[in-house]
Amino acid sequence: MAHVVGFKGQVVIAKEIRDQLGVEPGWLTLQRIVNDHVEVYFLPPEHRKSLKGSLAKHVRVRVAPGQEWDEARDRAWDKAAKQKVGAEEQLS
User: Which residue in 13, 55, 67, 81 has the most C-beta neighbors within 10 A?
Assistant: First the structure.
């Protein structure tokens, strides 16, 4: 696939290549010279979508904010700490 360099030095990335790599408008490119050619890397922009609720289908227990949440967090930390200490004692 040959493309002509534009007046401003712009080069078109072929649609087939963009599709295969999933490149979309707004992505950043990193370019570097390697020996006698240019390597181009594409970086997607940071997403602006909320992740709220994205793990909801994996949660079995719902805890309301406030004291109930604080107690549930403390129990979880205690359990994790005991498991870690128990695992370290088994290694000794």
Answer: 13
